[in-house]
Write a structure and sequence with these properties.
Layout lengths: L1 E4 L7 H13 L9 E5 L2 E4 L9 H16 L16 E3 L2 E3 L7 H19 L5 H15 L10 E3 L8 E4 L2 E4 L5 E3 L1 H11 L4 H11 L10 H15 L2 H22 L1
Antiparallel strand pairs: 1-3, 2-3, 4-5, 6-9, 7-8
Helix pairs in contact: 2-6, 3-4, 3-7, 4-8, 5-7, 7-8
Length: about 260
């Protein structure tokens, strides 16, 4: 058994993790680490055996991730089913609720709040923040809405939360919520993962992505970049600004 504990953890921190793991596991998609017990100051998880990543496991991961996403959520921004407490990405609180459209939810709840915190910490310049604001306003216009239903997201799908075991990938440490499926994929692209191309190809074969999704990667990376800009220094603030510029250029191309 693997135990994580922190007497200073925010209220609901470990309970939210357990709720997210249960919700993702209920999809029948990518397996999640099993929770043995949870309390206010800690969580007890099954101990996972590590294995070397391989192409077959990567392809299976892509197929199962498509199934996880396809299991859906009741709305954009919704928390794991049955969970009414706070949610978190890493140790940072993450808003939850119910939004009808992705264009209403994403810029106001997943990008701008963290960009504001990054400015307050000196990790994002005033000019950079204004670029992010302009990108958020463009998203809110609905130009990127595509009619996709809310997906069941892991929400923090970087390589460190993709655990390779002898039986395949197991997910850990979610920031689970309802969102756009391309956001999870963009996070995999941002931080890299072994056999990324195999994962994405298998995913696209199982649940074909809308044309041009590669070009939209910066749009969906605004969220993880904004989160990292808060606590990981100005380099992420600069990356966030660059992604926002890419979104504005993408919007110009869509409008032409």
């Amino acid at each position: 058994m693997f135990t994580k504990s922190d007497p200073a953890a925010p209220e609901g921190f470990f309970e939210a993790e357990a709720a997210g793991l249960a919700w993702l596991a209920a999809s029948g998609g990518v397996p999640c680490v099993r929770v043995h017990a949870v309390r206010a100051d800690g969580i007890e998880l099954e101990e996972l055996r590590s294995a070397r990543p391989n192409r077959d496991a990567a392809r299976r991961f892509g197929e199962l991730l498509a199934l996880t996403h396809r299991s859906g959520a009741s709305a954009f921004g919704t928390p794991p089913e049955g969970w009414t407490g706070p949610c978190f990405i890493g140790r940072r609180e993450m808003s939850v609720g119910e939004w009808e459209s992705w264009s209403e939810f994403y810029p106001q709840e997943r990008v701008r709040p963290y960009a504001e915190q990054a400015v307050a910490r000196g990790n994002l310049s005033a000019d950079g923040f204004q670029t992010v604001v302009r990108a958020c306003e463009l998203i809110r216009s609905g130009i990127f809405d595509d009619g996709e239903p809310p997906a069941r997201l892991h929400g923090d799908l970087w390589s460190g939360n993709v655990f390779w075991t002898p039986t395949g990938v197991v997910l850990i440490d979610p920031a689970a919520h309802g969102g756009h499926r391309e956001t999870d994929l963009a996070m995999l692209v941002l931080f890299g993962v072994p056999f990324l191309d195999d994962i994405l190809t298998a995913y696209d074969q199982a649940a074909p992505l809308a044309p041009g999704w590669h070009a939209r990667v910066p749009l969906h990376q605004l969220f993880p970049l904004a989160v990292h800009a808060v606590g990981h220094g100005p380099s992420y603030g600069a990356e966030l600004e660059r992604a926002a510029h890419a979104v504005l250029q993408l919007g110009s191309g869509s409008a032409s």
